């Protein structure tokens, strides 16, 4: 498989402003027109890895700073996957979604990459900061694209993370796909096809709307297209990478062990409590987590467990 370096600074909480994005990462997103390499027209995502990861960033105004958070924390995400062996032979593809009704670039499609090469794809993304007041972004167009334009190895286990804060539609419009140069024979519900393509490994990391509060109608709209336990609420913005890592980790170890992993990389009890609470329903659906005493406070379990934990 070879080794791929992803060696650059990972920024601490002290380097973030109130929205959660560091000035360093903000300086990396300078594009104002779409890079031809991100244009979805005629493009396919092709991965030769056993575990392709696709991260879909909502780059509209209400959710834009998650792109910067992901940029700052992606080396840690990558390194933890390798060190803890949550996955073997993986790559990461960065995509971005906006609003097809208002934005110039509602769909941006990256290419799977490993190591530091991932940064070059992140830095191509246009943070359009658009969207409108319609309570929806064009997640369904991205769902259609990913369901029909990804090529994986026969035994691959791909996974998709949507990072979103608004409602989702259960119907993609052929007319909007045509405008973007994305092949679509008819208007339809693309989510069953996406779940099938990714073996039900499709997740949305749902943020508070405009960073203020969760809207129940938004949450319920996602739960109509994904299993309830795959709609993961983000307890605090800086926890986004911890949540994505946790989803990977609990396929290999139980939630308590992942809490110990978080403690080992210096996360606060508050962060650990928030992340494990958000992942509890998902963890309880996996065989490895059926014996976890989920009603015990995480802080108490960490104290009881000391530094032990399963490393697979």
Features:
312 residues; alpha/beta; 6-stranded mixed beta sheet; two-stranded parallel ribbon; single chain; disordered C terminus; 2 domains; Rossmann fold; 11 helices
Can you lay out the helices and strands and say which pair or pack?
Layout: H1 23-28, E1 45-46, E2 51-58, H2 65-84, E3 90-97, E4 107-109, H3 117-122, H4 139-148, E5 150-151, E6 159-164, H5 174-180, H6 191-197, E7 202-206, H7 216-225, E8 231-233, H8 240-249, H9 255-264, H10 269-283, H11 298-305
Parallel strand pairs: 1-5, 2-3, 2-6, 6-7, 7-8
Antiparallel strand pairs: 3-4
Helix pairs in contact: 2-8, 4-6, 8-10, 9-10, 9-11
Structure notes:
- With 312 residues, the chain is α/β, with parallel strands linked by helices.
- The protein folds into 2 domains: 16-249, Rossmann fold; 254-312, no CATH class.
- Helix content is 35%, strand content 12%.
- It contains 11 helices and 8 strands.
- The strands form 2 sheets. It has a 6-stranded mixed sheet with strand order 4-3-2-6-7-8, with helices on both faces. Strands 1-5 form a two-stranded parallel sheet.
- The two termini are 19 Å apart.
